[in-house]
């Protein structure tokens, strides 16, 4: 009589990850992953002058260690866990990283830095790195979905004040790092069990301030690399770590979980392909409103002729981008402006370049511009029933402008730009990269670097070759520039 062995979720992930590490991924998934890597590297470049980059850089400099991996913007190499910490911090610092819906996770900012660091250390090819990152992002998203409550319409992680991106991202980063480290099925199962003890992050900073959230993805990437190194040296983790009585999901989410979402269709149905890339450097809930405002602008609507604007959004979004109304109409800083529905609509109608709205629209000076504030004061935010019904699988919006002649013009955006229904083209992804890179690099350098990043999907170049240019001090602006 043949016995049937039932694999635990961690063992199933280990089995699939080992197979993909051996066989690779298809061209469509590889194209998606290289675009995500381009996005991460561009976001890293944009954040090199932010305070978290300086702080984390100082800490890893004190740690020392064997120099094997690139941290964006540093001329020296670092130990792989330290490089992952720096790059993960950079990738998440400006809230410009990609988003999985409806879990509202930002998976690539944790997983890609871990994969890049280990790939550089072991001399892996671009395709091998992309395959590992694909699995790591998939695991991150599936763990997030296991803790997503349909009735609640929200993540149980978030309802409990936990940052699911950092917690699930540590496990995804560990799987990617383990694949590139050459772990077998058992080792990859253990790396999940190890990383589950390392994922952490609370989101109180979203409410009352502090810069710690910007480091969350860096710490997840760091934890993932460390977990893989520990597994490589023989440390083991429990095979029931995901579903067990004292396992990952029970510990973080209690009984309101869907364990089956972790492994159903794993390796065949890819959540990764549905992750949204952000075209604008501001809160994702504001993006459809920006697109609607840009559509009004494209129709030739003169902002001077606008008497009033009504921005309809999903009801749960109002507390983030619309309340309190006085604060959102007059944001205190460029950072606060990025979380304001009224301001972002005004910025799209009055400012912005070829990319719609971009970093220059979220400086403190731009947020204090009298013309923008006057227009933002004319924006009233309301709950829109159709948008609420679509949320949170999209972040839609409807914008109605009442004009001086008494007529009205309406634009409705049901699907977010940058998502699977409206993906960014390679040219648009490259434009985002070069726009980001302009904050850090001398003129002309971004085009060379983005071309090198796209080449990761080709088998002829190692990850180390591509990343080497990101350490060249001659490509970076001086502190005075």
Q: What would you say this structure looks like, in words?
A:
By secondary structure, the protein is α+β, with helices and mostly antiparallel strands. It has two domains: 9-274, 2-methylcitrate dehydratase PrpD (Orthogonal Bundle), CATH 1.10.4100; 284-413, 60s Ribosomal Protein L30, Chain: A, CATH 3.30.1330.120. The protein has 24 helices and eight strands. The chain has helices spanning 9-23, 27-46, 51-63, 80-93, 108-122, 126-146, 156-159, 164-180, 185-195, 205-208, 216-232, 248-253, 260-263, 287-298, 318-321, 325-329, 334-337, 341-350, 364-367, 370-376, 385-390, 426-437, 445-454, 463-468, and strands spanning 69-70, 77-78, 148-149, 154-155, 306-313, 379-383, 397-403, 408-413. The protein has a four-stranded mixed sheet with strand order 6-5-7-8. A two-stranded antiparallel ribbon has the order 1-2. Strand 7 (397-403) and strand 8 (408-413) form a beta hairpin. The termini are far apart. The mean pLDDT is 95.
CATH topology label of the largest domain: 2-methylcitrate dehydratase PrpD
Distance between the termini: 75 Å
What's the alpha carbon Rg, rounded to whole Å?
22 Å
The strand order across the widest sheet is 6-5-7-8
**DSSP helix fraction:** 40-55%
> What is the β-strand count?
8
**Structural class designation:** alpha+beta
The CATH architecture of the largest domain can be given as: Orthogonal Bundle
Mean pLDDT: 95
**What share of residues are in beta strands?**
5-15%
Query: What characterizes the major β-sheet?
Result: 4 strands, mixed
Provide the CATH top-level class of the largest domain. Mainly Alpha
CATH superfamily grouping of the largest domain: 2-methylcitrate dehydratase PrpD
Overall morphology: globular
DSSP helical segment count: 24
Low-confidence sequence ranges: none
The number of distinct structural domains comes to 2
